[in-house]
Amino acid sequence: MRSCYKRLKMQPYLKGFWSGLFLLIDDSVSRRKSIGLTLLSKAPLFGWRALVQKQMGPVLSFVDAQGVKGMWLLVAYLVCYTCFNIPEHVPRSYYKSLLYVTGIINVYQKDTDRVMKAHSELVNYSTSNQIDLSIPESTTSRDYLLKMFQDSRIGDIVKRMVRLDLIPSGARHSQLACCWQHPLDASCESGALRYAFGVVRQVLPLYIAINSVSTIVSLYNKKAKKRKILRDYVHSTLRTGLMMGSFVGLFSYIVCRFRRFFGRDLGFIYGLGGLLAVPTLFIEKQSRLIDLLGYCSTKVLETGYGYGKLHHLVPDIKYGELLFLLPSIAIVAECVENHPETVHGMMKPLLFWLFQK
Fold first, then answer.
1. Claim: this prediction has a pTM higher than 0.85
2. Helix-helix angle 29-56:322-338, to 10 degrees
């Protein structure tokens, strides 16, 4: 593909389009789909930046920052909505990583998959049926759950969704789903704080290891300012932990508040919780946010593509992935060759190697 692109004598977007046909040599549909969705998540952002730069170059950085924030509002809504409403369609490894980072997998351990699936069933049932799932103030959570186990409509779902052994004796949660979301804390506020601090504890060791690699490499540079490098290492690691902990904690609290307002578990409140928690993401640096946005956007597109094919919303035709693969390659190639300053993120070196003159 790269050699074909270098030899073609035409506009970059046309070269990208035609050279993309060489991916048909790869007989793996899943690999072509993955490449296509990855580029599809990059193409609109690169193209938009190129357009903005042409029309309003002097204020590019400001407009670009607002564009990233706007994209995050949409992506955060979709990530949170899909994970709690249709988890079976979310890419498996990505879904597992979210459960690990948020600490849910630490609460339910080997029962996590069963519990999350049952919760999505309750959300779907509660969304389509008028059913009050508020726990009376005079009733303990355990007594209410024992009663709900006998309910002919959702008794089986509740049995698979909650674990009585995790709920303290005498605890009084406000909603049925709160017994699932924060079983150890009857208070929604305490549950949100537990998630926030739990995420920080979970994430810090991971990013200490990840950031240490680049830090060690930088320290080997004789001209490097070692004290500044170490300070940036500490700041970067703490900033990422604080950002993720704040997002998850605020998301948990917002969802609980909406649940109490409506008196039941509704699908859209999870997406809305993610959207309203987005301001906490801006604790992180812009460059990191852009990389994370590209990764999450790709997973959202994969989820939507899989859901669409299963429900016949996306045409299931041979080589159908070319419908979004080829236009995406064309846009990315045009941006790399004629607007290289609009390309950023971890894939930048690879894209420049593929598509620059």
1. no
2. 40
